Amino acid sequence: MKQIPPSPLSRHRQLALIILFFLASLPHIHHLAGLISGFVLVMVVYRLFAISWPRLLPGKLLLILLTLTALANVILQYPLLIGRTAGVALLCSMGALKLLEMKSQRDVYVLSFIGYFTLGSHFLFQDQAWLVLYVILVVTGFTAVLAANSRANPINGLLPSIKTALVLLIQAAPIMLVLFILFPRFTSPLWNLGPESDQAVTGISGSITPGNLSQLSRSSAVAFRAEFDDEIPPPEQRYWRGPVFTNTDGVSWLPVESENNLRVAPASGARTLDYSVTMEPSPGRWLYALEFPSHIPGNARLQADFQLIRSTPISRRIRYRASSVVDYRINTSDPDQLQLALALPSTITPRMRDLVKDWKGRAQSSAELVLTALDYFRQQPFYYTLYPPELGENAADAFLFETRQGFCEHYATSFTLLMRIAGIPARVVAGYQGGEVNPMGNYLIVRQSDAHAWSEIWLEGEGWMRIDPTAAVAPERVENPLDLNQISQLVGSPVLYQHSDNSFIGRTIKKLGLSLDALHTAWYRWILGYSRERQSHLLSMLGLGFLQGTKLALGMVVCGGMVVLVMVLLAARESSRPKNPVVASYHRFCKRLKLVGLDRQPHEGPNNFAQRVINQRPDLSSKVTAITQLYVGIRYGQLDSRERRRHLKRLVKAFHPAKKGT
């Protein structure tokens, strides 16, 4: 038996598939190696030219060479061929090669499903809301092409196929919703079960030297967002505590790792703030909380120096609950901690000691000496800048007596050394200070530009106390965030702060940015952050709290099956109704004949049925002939027009045959 050759693919459908595959691969340009992305782009452009010049399509030999080139390209970039990036690189390369083989309609199915897999692979790398919308749009395009390819008779225009694709996606939405709500969750959101992120992250690192926080503060990237159960605290209370640096060689400061966990009971009557933190990936394991944390999130511990440390790295976005005491007093003393907080490096100079000696001679107590040191920073010509001059080998001495220009880490580290010279235990605390209130969602946005460092000292009878020497030099730093758009990069340039822009354009841009951030936050909170706890809470609200474990999986299957059954019944009912108004009119004509005993048989065409009706009921001859000829002419001939369709509808409406003999 001779095999029927496959139907050729139209130029329009070829163009649609090439564009759709390119769009499906486009977001991977940030994740794949340049040679992989370049190969895919070259194949797409090559195939576009081949639409107009089919002779450019490669033969078997050239196609084999291109395939070997693609494999070699992938292996050179990812030698082990292990991991998500290598897999996606191979998928995109093979999809691009499939474009060169696209000649017949059956290739549409293969390319479309490759496109579906490529679109799904994006969620191994990103989870933003915009990506979901982008994927839905491209999926609609692929589905429209499949719908057009499945039609027996070609139709003009794209709208019917796009409409079919949208209907199919809408029909799938109830199943998607059931699976999202009832699919058994793990302790963390299912989205987080992918491989670790291999992208660089921004944040406070495990050491601090003069200059590194000022570099970090030039970034407007979000560090974390905080949602408070009650009112958001004022700026002067927004000290987000992170790593604590005790060890120093006079230049670099390092934290002290301790296995001793600490539980500190808040003072009686102290006000407690309850809040949730959504933290972006960070280079360390520190969780940030307002001073002082009274509730420790799960998977974290509080060290003796009050560092809140997570047991695993923060390589992806996380969310945790925390509580903090606003007016706290930590009078717990650890001799080892106090001893470490008094250690002096070899970089202490005679004039640093002379300065502290002068303070001690004038102060009557340690508390008064601290106030004298802060007055020194206020009264001397110290200058707050993001671009301080070079300090040389002894940074603290050069900063205190020569340049006197620096950022928060300069003030915090030098002040801490001066306190240690005075015999007062002191250490440096890094974190974030401030944050921007988003009224769209009533939460706080803390950015990398809010990175800050301050000192912490120990006073007998008072315990550990926060001292911010930067506030003595630039008190506006506590009240207002930095304005990164207007800061000059010249050495010693002043730090400028954000102030409200009352212009219409300024207000509009500000509201738009905050609205987008609120949408992003809601997306993570309700979709990506849908964990086992949130699932249990939602099921309890719906009265389905008994669905746990295997019962939950069974409930998912039952609910999904019920939704499918309802959709099948609705589809069957809908399919029995003719959607074409011409067909609907003819079916109404046939039903009225059935009422008088003239039932149309499945094998009968319109003309055959009309002839049988006329043979049995000659009295209906003129009306049956007029209706049938008009229907056949509109449906199968060249007589289709709005006026003829209306005329057919009027004829059928007026057709009321009487039973024979009445």
The main sheet comes to:
6 strands, antiparallel
Strand fraction: 5-15%
Could you estimate the helical fraction of the residues in percent?
A: 40-55%
Number of strands: 16
Oligomer: single chain
Summarize model confidence as the mean pLDDT.
83
Widest sheet, order of strands: 6-9-4-1-14-13
What ranges have pLDDT less than 50 throughout 5 or more consecutive residues? 189-198
Number of helices, where a helix is a run of at least 4 consecutive DSSP H or I residues: 22
Task: Supply the number of structural domains.
Answer: 3
The secondary-structure class comes to: alpha+beta
Rounded to an integer, what's the Rg over CA atoms? Answer: 37 Å
Cα separation of the termini? 59 Å
Sum this structure up briefly.
The chain has 662 residues and is an alpha+beta fold.
List keywords for this structure.
alpha+beta; elongated; 662 residues; 6-stranded antiparallel sheet; 3 domains
